[in-house]
Amino acid sequence: MMAPQILGWGKEGHYVICKIAEEYLTEDALAAVKSLLPDQAEGDLAAVCSWADQVRHHYHYRWSSPLHYVDTPDFLCNYKYCRDCHDGHGHKDRCVTGAIFNYSMQLSQGYYDLNSEKYNLTEALMFLSHFVGDVHQPLHVGFTGDLGGNTIVVRWYRRKTNLHHVWDTMIIESALKTYYKRDLMLMTQALLRNITDEWSDDVPSWENCKKMVCPDPYASESIRLACKFAYRNATPGSTLTDDYFLSRLPVVEKRLAQSGVRLAEVLNRIFTKKLSVAAQ
């Protein structure tokens, strides 16, 4: 069980997403992922899925902080890449969707170019796996004015927190405690069952990406869910209890599942055996 100490989707959420993704990787993709993982991961992508959160406050990686989210105009409830994807200084492409485009490109170009020293592919894999998760967290595509819910102070039952943290961590923590005996693997298995069962008709629409990667539709889904579920009935100072938890948990669980399926899909596309053709 991972320690319950957290930021973006929280460690638990990212762990679950990468565990789901591993179940859907092709043989080629799984081999490529294992070859790129750092030693401390011991062949398990989920072990390093929170790495990007752990390093964002380190001096050498502080530049990566804006890559975890994209802020959208208050109350419009829509997302547009050219309008929204920039950091606080206005530098273009520095947001979560821009980062997903960038790191998927680095992996697809760098992995099959045997002379390529240009990219750190291990870091690219860890960033990509994390950011595909982040773009699915509705408040990572929240409003600029409240920093994606970070400045909306609420109570989660008796605990004082902010709305962003509720969606990153607390809904998942409460679910683990209430339904899954505090066991992340039980939660992961339940979501995997839902993917083949309850959501099986939806899954093809999760995968309808005709390019290497499609972060823009994922961001658009997130801001719509933020408006419909995250911000609704969660004004500053409110106390969120069972009503909010029970109606929002299905949204969170489905987003975790979608992230996992889509991350696998991206990695499968990046790591198809292009090499065998090139080598002939």
Task: Please summarize what this structure is.
InterPro entries: PLipase_C/P1_nuclease_dom_sf, S1/P1nuclease. Monomer. With 280 residues, the chain is mainly alpha-helical.
Keywords:
280 residues, mainly alpha, 12 helices, 4% strand, globular, disordered N terminus, disordered C terminus
Q: What this model shows, in words?
A:
A three-stranded mixed β-sheet has the order 2-1-3. The protein has helices at about 10-25, 25-35, 50-55, 80-85, 95-110, 120-135, 165-180, 185-195, 205, 215-230, 240-270, 275-280; strands at about 155, 160, 240. β1 and β2 form a beta hairpin. It is built from twelve helices and three strands, in the order ααααααββααααβαα. It is mainly alpha-helical and about 280 residues long. The longest helix is centred in the last third of the chain and has 29 residues, at about 240-270. About 55% of the residues lie in helices and about 5% in strands. The N and C termini lie far apart (about 45 Å). It is an enzyme of class 3 (hydrolase). Keywords: Disulfide bond, Endonuclease, Glycoprotein, Hydrolase, Metal-binding, Nuclease, Signal. It catalyses: Endonucleolytic cleavage to 5'-phosphomononucleotide and 5'-phosphooligonucleotide end-products. Its EC number is 3.1.30.1. This is Aspergillus nuclease S1.
